[in-house]
Amino acid sequence: MGRTYFVEEAIGQYLSDLGTKLKPYVTGLLIGQCSLQRDYVIRAVRTPPKEEQKEDNISHSNLASIDEEWITTHASQVSRMLPGGLLVLGVFIVATPELSKESQNALRKLIFSVEKSLTKRRLWKPAEEEVSERAALQICSSTKKVVCRTYDVQDPKSSAKPADWKYQSALSASWLALSCTVNVNIHIPLLATSPNHDLEKNTKNGLNRWSKQIEDSVFLINGQVRGDDTELLEGQKKSKGATQSGTHFLDVKVLTQLSQGSSHRSTAAVQICSGSINVKGAVKCRAYVHNNKPKVKEAVQALKRDIINTLCDRCEILFEDLLINEGPHKKNFERAYHVLPQRLFVPVAGSSVMLSDYKFGDEATEEIQERFVEMLDQSVQTEDIHIAEDISTVDICPVPDHLDAPQPQQLTKATLLLKLQQNMGM
């Protein structure tokens, strides 16, 4: 028996409208949430046209012209705009009857390419029971016939399995929302052996270590520690802060462990460093969970991933911005403060879910609106853009050249002594 996809009713009209375009095919992404019992699709987003396609209105007659790299890049950009609990669930194609035989092979190739691209960026590992099937949706532009199949992205030799595609009204109108603020103060040493002070690589390594702390943290939901397999809303009254759409907000506190337990052996390490990176600030995190008796572990997992993703994505965006503005040739290693982009949320019509994005301080509202149209095919009103947080920073700090050689040695010994005392429980 194949998987069942419950789909927001408005998506049917959206896909039908795409089929009326002049081009013989349109590709795009399916966005939603996986669960062990069923999957939910709350958005479908067409692949944005490339500049030359806008200008020349080129019409291709076969699927060999599909730009795989362009579609995977779009998927990576869209994944940054998804809060916890949402992911790219699959790909779709609306094509003419003449292209129906080619469509399934094209979809299979795209599914594996998109998943490979998204997996490469993640700092978290999938759970053992994680759903690894992704949807390939094929729609005939003439007959409107829908064919949905799935592929197991963990198995490169996976063959297509049939899946049910069922439309449902107000699918995500009363999903549950979890929110928390995480105070971040990450100190990342820059090893002297690192070539050209590779800031991006060092930062990612430091965030990877920090992400493991988040994974091991304790999550208090409305002030309580809850069992993984208990239902999220068990014993809880509906929040007074619920909106008209029925959103139930749950406040979460994240308690990170200050030190490892006695069962873990720690070893002090001394490394020669050329400086450090400090990431500081308070980040707003949010996750959404379906309302079909979700378990606590589903909700906590979604929020953990949002915490890790939002910081990692911001650092990626910052380094991309620096590359554009300063160029790859810049190798000077100077003291510098950089402001991370701030997170903002935008509502989805007919849903309790809000999508996310990031803006730099000097970025105009019009740029954000243009990005939502391009990436998510969604118009956004200025008053619907909610900036969620204050400024967070990245401080790149080199070791001053004028320090005498003995000083770092004395500091290293003091640090080593402190580590040894901590390990001995002093």
TrEMBL record:
Entry's localization field: Membrane
Pfam families: ODR4-like (PF14778)
Sorted UniProt keywords: Membrane, Transmembrane, Transmembrane helix
One annotated GO biological process: intracellular protein localization
InterPro entries: ODR-4-like
Any single GO CC term annotated in Swiss-Prot or TrEMBL for this entry: endomembrane system
Top-level taxon of the source organism: Eukaryota
Task performed by this protein: May play a role in the trafficking of a subset of G-protein coupled receptors.
Protein name as it appears in the record: Protein odr-4 homolog
Organism: Eubucco bourcierii (red-headed barbet)
